[in-house]
Write a structure and sequence with these properties.
Layout: H1 15-22, H2 32-72, H3 78-99, H4 101-130, H5 138-150, H6 156-177, H7 181-223, H8 234-251, E1 255-262, H9 265-272, H10 274-291, E2 298-303, E3 306-312, H11 316-333, E4 348-355, H12 363-379, E5 385-388, H13 403-414
Parallel strand pairs: 4-5
Antiparallel strand pairs: 1-3, 1-4, 2-3
């Protein structure tokens, strides 16, 4: 008689898929990790373009300054020179930060959030100082507004804040120095429309960038997902484990790895057939995914009927609690398994390794410690959890101790 396992959706939603469906009207992803990844991706992708635009800005500023000096031929312009030094300094600091990739990734967003309003205020000051001499610098202010929205790598919200700051600065400064009312209204309206046009274009551009990022992430997720269960595959497991291992070394945080193996799965497949066996794999995958909800928790199909769970910043107590939860949820499903010895239902054996990664330890030893714990769980009766937290240097590395032992263990694992 065939088990009454219900076929559930095999594909587990990724954060990118959920965000695409939900949309992002306010240009922010609901998942903090996804938002952080997008911002870092945007900064990295914009670096070359930003460098070019900043150098172009420096050239344009120098051109305006030379034209201004030629037309007015000032004798005493100390105040104006200070304004121009500040403007040029803000550009040069921004260029300097883009020169090194590490500096750019860490500091550009903070630097430009100060440098852009400063440069805009300097452009306004230059206009208000020059205006009595009969030369208008106002066109440069409008160019600065457009550059803020489209040329220097700012996202929509900080660009909008900077553009409105320049508009407010111009209005306040113009009123303070007594710019004629008609000129104030005319120039203020131009700056307002420059902000509207720039903001509209920047909003549309960021929506396009965010959509492209999510679609690329979704394609990557699909390539890294197991086609049957919808959870991550072995390649994604290797990449994720390597990444969080090095993060744990830097941050001195503990890690844990659980290897979860369905007991007597070959007999289950032989009894019910592969289609029902596939449904069983899907249900176990869903239990593991539901149990692992922290940001860096990671679940993958390790191979065949074996699954892997990677936990960041997790000690032995949390690992034991999670393993108990997995066993209890599987017990609650009560998946019939007449070919199972003793229990009459589907069970899993869990081997877990807990340690604090250091420079002198390896991921290979970490995985092997969990693997040996899994073998011990299967050797001592299955349907149980074995947790080891010894240094993996105490474990066997490379091959197992004896060839005979390796062969016997491989046979037990396949059963």
């Amino acid at each position: 008689m065939v088990s009454s396992i219900s076929l559930t959706a095999p594909i587990v939603d990724s954060a990118a898929a959920k965000q695409l469906r939900a949309g992002f009207r306010w240009l922010r992803f609901s998942d903090p990790l996804l938002e952080s990844s997008f911002r870092q991706h945007h900064i990295d992708q914009a670096r070359s373009r930003v460098q070019t635009h900043l150098w172009l800005s420096i050239a344009l500023v120098m051109t305006f300054v030379l034209i201004d000096e030629y037309l007015l031929q000032r004798v005493d312009g100390a105040q104006l020179q200070l304004v121009r030094v500040l403007a040029m300094g803000s550009l040069l600091v921004s260029v300097l930060v883009t020169a090194k990739k590490d500096w750019y990734g860490r500091y550009y967003a903070q630097v430009v959030s100060v440098a852009v309003p400063l440069f805009g205020a300097c452009a306004v000051a230059n206009e208000l100082i020059d205006q009595p001499g009969g030369v208008s610098f106002f066109a440069a202010i409008a160019l600065v507004v457009f550059a803020i929205y489209l040329l220097i790598g700012l996202l929509f919200i900080p660009a909008l804040c900077s553009g409105l700051f320049i508009l407010a600065t111009y209005w306040a400064g113009a009123v303070a120095v007594g710019v004629p009312k008609h000129a104030l209204i005319y120039n203020g309206t131009i700056l307002l429309f420059a902000n509207v046009l720039g903001a509209t274009a920047a909003y549309a551009l960021e929506r396009l960038l965010r959509t492209s990022f999510l679609e690329a992430r979704l394609l990557s997720d699909m390539a890294n997902r197991d086609g049957l269960t919808g959870i991550y595959n072995r390649r994604a497991f290797d990449e994720h484990t390597d990444r969080v291992w090095h993060q744990a070394v830097r941050e001195q945080r503990p890690m844990a790895l659980l290897l979860v193996d369905i007991d007597h799965f070959k007999a289950y497949n032989d009894y019910y057939g592969h289609q029902v066996g596939d449904q069983c794999l899907q249900q176990v995958a869903q239990i593991l995914t539901a149990a692992c909800r922290r940001p860096l928790d990671f679940t993958a199909r390790y191979g065949g009927e074996e699954f892997a769970v990677v936990l960041y910043d997790a000690g032995r107590g949390y690992v034991q609690e999670l393993a108990n939860q997995i066993q209890e949820q599987l017990l609650a499903l009560a998946i019939a398994h007449p070919a199972s010895s003793g229990t009459g239902r589907v069970t899993v054996s869990i081997g877990a390794a807990c340690l604090s990664p250091t420079q002198d330890r390896s991921i290979f030893g970490f995985v092997q410690s969990a693997d040996e714990a899994l073998y011990e769980a299967k050797d001592t009766g299955r349907d149980r959890t074995i947790i080891v937290d010894r240094k993996h240097g105490d474990s066997v590395t490379g091959s197992f101790c004896h060839t005979g032992q390796s062969d016997n263990q491989a046979q037990r694992r396949a059963s």
